[in-house]
Write a structure and sequence with these properties.
The protein is α/β, with parallel strands linked by helices. It contains 15 helices and 21 strands. It has helices at residues 28-39, 60-66, 83-96, 113-119, 135-143, 224-238, 254-267, 284-292, 307-312, 319-329, 349-365, 381-384, 388-393, 424-432, 445-458; strands at residues 4-8, 12-16, 19-23, 44-48, 73-77, 101-105, 125-127, 154-157, 163-165, 195-196, 199-200, 220-221, 242-245, 272-277, 295-303, 335-342, 368-373, 395-396, 411-412, 417-418, 441-442. Helix 6 (224-238) packs parallel to helix 7 (254-267), helix 7 runs parallel beside helix 8 and helix 10 (319-329) packs parallel to helix 11 (349-365). The model is unreliable at 464-482 (pLDDT under 50).
Length: 482
Amino acid sequence: MADITFVNLNMLHVRYDGSYERELHLPLGLLYLTTVLEQAGYEVDLRDYQRCPADDPFDLDTFVDFVADPAPIVGISCMANLLPFAILAAEQLKQRYPDRTLVLGGVGAKAVERQVLDRFPWIDLVAQGEAERAIVPLVEALQNGGDVSQVPGVFYRSSDGRIRENGPPPRIEDLDGIARPAYHHVELPVYDAYGMVSSRGCPYQCSFCSVAPVWGHTCYFRSARDVVAEMKELHEAAAVDLFLFQDEFFVSSKQAVLQFCEQFRQSGIEARWKAFARVDLADDEVMQAMAEAGCLEIRFGIESGSARMLELTTKGFTPDMAVDVVSRATQLFPRVDTFFIWGYPNETMDDFHQSLFQMLSFRLMGARILPSLLCLLPQTKMYQELTAAERNRLEFCDELLPEYVITGHEICKVGATAIAEEHRPYFDFIEQHKDLFPGFFLLDVEDKIMPKLKILQEHGFYSRADRELSDLDSCGAHSPRV
């Protein structure tokens, strides 16, 4: 038997009337941890639930069958969209295997770790932070009596029943020193998207962002040489010809980008890649170098066309800067993605119309517009600054869920959702724990959200007709397609 079973629940699964859309992304986080454990002499059993063959993977018995006969320690990794499912699935797993230790990991439980342990006794520990430095001590402790009081990066119940927290392990500054993900545990050719990590973290303070707080607003980088070497390995091993840089800070400086582009050109890899960039860091020289080195898609987090909203959210640039950079980017790249957020708590209709005008302008330039309804995850500054009265007014809306918490249970109709009766208990569970899952809730639905949605639909950003995910002008943050 293996020492630990890892279960990947980081999934993009969209349900339509009678059809599904799935995208398989390499489970990089668990692959990194698998390497660390194997180097320490442990045996890892990795189960990627993205590859569950069932038509409806969100049946709890299906999940437990998929994780049949797990190792004594089971680590479940999820993001916020599937945190409710992970909790309910863990309960079923514990009922079938009561002697297993269940560890919840990933970013899904960020900022609600204590509440999770307090309310759901079948979850034994919640992990936080970079686990490369914590996973081996954790497995050692659990195999030798279960005392995790000295293991960094875990929330746990002490012998007196109290919830305890060990601070996160020190950040890994030398990312080149991290061993390659355990790619031998997966069938590389079956995946749709091959993520690459050039950095970990983001120093910016955008109030709506759920990613930078996970890393403590601190960023460390890999060298261009190390990144390109890994790309070459994947290209040669599995003919990977399209890479996704999903990290927030790929364009961290002109020097870093130019070094990467030069290394990539020298490597001779016949591949293309996509990356995010900040408006205030992507000048002509940077974008030209990226385009010439095979970047077929550059992605900008614009977030709003209102100067007032950009200032309130601490975005760090102005609408005029965004217009200037996006207009030049459309002349260089086959595709330019511009992400907008709508439905901010303090967004007036005037602010919204300024965003709409900019979205229409970018569309005319040839950019792809990707509007997303605000998702108030608990670690965001914007959620934490809501008053008690505002939190009480948060509403669950059957007909509309933010794109970043689409779970796969709801039926998507493009700009609208519907909940089938067989999955109603799942959403009842979400409603019972509003403070754990605030990303599923909206503020002032009737007065502020629905009027804006109607306007977006009238301008074609959320079509009233069902279409395939690959065709949508909606949240495309995960889509690997060209």
